[in-house]
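Q: What structure does this chain adopt?
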Amino acid sequence: TLVIVYNPFILQESVDALIKCITEDLGYSQGKPVAAFTIYKCLLHWKSFEAERTSVFDRLIQTIGSAMENPDSNEHMAYWLSNTSTLLFLLQRSLKAGAASKPPPPTSLFGRMTKGFRSSLSSSNLSADVVRQVEAKYPALLFKQQLTAYVEKIYGIIRDNLKRDLGPLLSSCIQAPRTSKATVLLSGQSSGNNSPPASHWQGIINCLNSLLGILKDNYVPAVLVQKIFTQIFTYINVQLFNSLLLRRECCSFSNGEYIKAGLAELELWCGQAKEEYAGSSWDELKHIRQAVGFLV
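A:
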């Protein structure tokens, strides 16, 4: 059990205990990431936010940075996205900058998303009695900036991991195999020893479902989940549309039917994921949907 203390002689030992504690997967309690709340409560108790000089923030940033050494694991990245984004939210609610140390207005992705971020997290998940406003000194404000950068980095890693998985599948989704018609393709039937052509579209659905499940299991804020999938659907739109432009042989009625059937699967996925997580993802496919409309 982590004991929270405030004593100048044993504070270093307490910081060491905190760092050792959060290097383990602490999981979740009632939908809340335990590590994020443990860090926040310790920093409040130690009055670290009001300190002119402290090394605790550097230690925390180093620990979070070391977690980036396993970027290929979406489970690992989602755990840290949940914890860092929740901790960032707590800091946004707590830290008041003094007149002499007021930070510049936010220009980053997550700075612009602050309103949605707050509404996503300020529901029943986070009780108001946890947060306490304090006048932050420079080290705490710098920590918040560094934490924001890590949230953005982790977010980008998860998004790009999914892009990497989808890339090979998308390249096979614009041309209907000549062995069967589009309606047969989506039923998963095929002739010969070839794998079912519909498996390319189904592979995309599987990738989306897998990541959504991981993000939900790790209680990643819905506003971040929405943003990930909105950007992924933008990527799908661009890849498919550009492939049609570059491969004239794919601009046929049969290929149009094949892509249309696949897009219907994506629309179904958005409906099942609901707006809470899918956001405006379906709208991001409007260009490829228009192109397919011309073909069929």
